[in-house]
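Recap quiz, item 2
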Amino acid sequence: MTGTLAAIGAGLAVIGAGIGIGQIGGKSVEAIARQPEASGDIRGAMILMAAFVEGAALIAILLSIFFS
Amino acid sequence: MHKIAGVLLIFCLTVLSATSLAQNHSHDHHDNGHDHSHEQHVGDEHHADDHEGHHDNACGGHGDHGGEYDPKATAMHHISDANVYTILDAVRIPLPCILYAKDKGWDVFMSSKFEPGHHDNGHAAYNGYVLHEGAVKRVIAEEFPSEGQVHVGGFTHEKIEVDGKERSIGYVCYEGEKMQLEEKTVFDGGVLGGAITSFYDLSITKNVASMILILIIFFFIFRWIARAYQNGKGKAPRGIQSLLEPVILYIRDEVAIPFLGRDRYAKYMPLLLSIFFFILGLNLWGQVPFLGGTNVTGSLTVTMVLAILVFLIVNFSGNKHYWQHILWMPGVPVAVKPLLAVIELMSMFIKPLTLMLRLAGNITAGHIAILSFIGLIFIFGDSGQNMTGGTVGSVLSVALTLFMMAIELIVAFIQAYVFTILSASYIGAAIEEHH
């Protein structure tokens, strides 16, 4: 039972991270389209932010592994 | 036209290799003497397996895999570290085992003493240690000979329930008796129910060997590049120098200078470049099919050491303002200051923790995805019973595996870059002057 709950929790965490990374990616592509000359900076910031969002999801997944 | 032919050739080769892998594995999971219908696939190695099977039955043990294909166990076996470097289940390069037990002292020998065979199980025990699925384990039973080399039968395991959790206990068969093995140490160090072994394994394992290999390769490449810069000032870069120069310049101009500042970046450049190339090299080496197959950057121990290094460097190079922002945040009401200090102290440890988890998680997830897609062959093919399903599964799994490998190639670069850029940003935040 706990295993199932943990799996559901991991899935929820991934949904959250997916929404977050999707927002980051979409917005930064919009920004690059608007200002192509700033694409280098935007790409750097995009990867950095995506990494932060991913970090939160990874903590959730690790906790779900621990509690399963 | 040329390109299409090349792609087709690669595709065919992959299908062939996947099929041969399938056969390999289908007899993998019948190696316990339950089913001998696949004997035609194998050469001399199978005799040893038959041998193993008989012992198994003599022990009255349950089959190691029960004839069923277990995707989880297979994936875990393939991503874990081993004391023998196996290439395609055919070539086994022995590696040195350095073991220390409090009651026994040091044991240093090559892992060929275990006579590793199929599935990286050792056919022999040495000084009371056995090789089970690539990992050195110690036999608990006291009647087991603790000196010298003895031949053992197969391995079995039983599932028992401890505190509501299913745990599997391994046994080795020796002279018809089942002897219990110590469980492998798990990364939680026993806190959350894992086991702790009674010996320290300081061996040069597969992962350590890959690390040493990558370090040697990169040492010579970078020595060569450095000499090329010394000798040919003002000349155009040549060879591998022109491949790596843009990468080094990218790390300097896009990572180091923006985060660390133009006047202070030079001190941290060696660290950032080492982190980047170490991670990148091992990521890529882990993706070489068959030959590499090591999961170095995907193992938490390796990334933990990297993260601890970054943590120490960040906190030792932190200046007055950095500590002030952590312990007594300026510019906020006094009532909020202790609360912020707690949060900042937590984030001080969470930063390296996520650094560790991100790299290991990404690389391991990619490897598990590939192994699961390859596992489709056995699931569809019913472990070699269903030819049609196996064929469909092979085609499907080759396409998915190629797709996944392409993604993993991107991930290898991105994760190396992310680790570097995050380290740079943490160090940058620590050495920032007051503004």
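Chain A has one domain: 2-67.
Chain A has a mean pLDDT of 85.
End of item.
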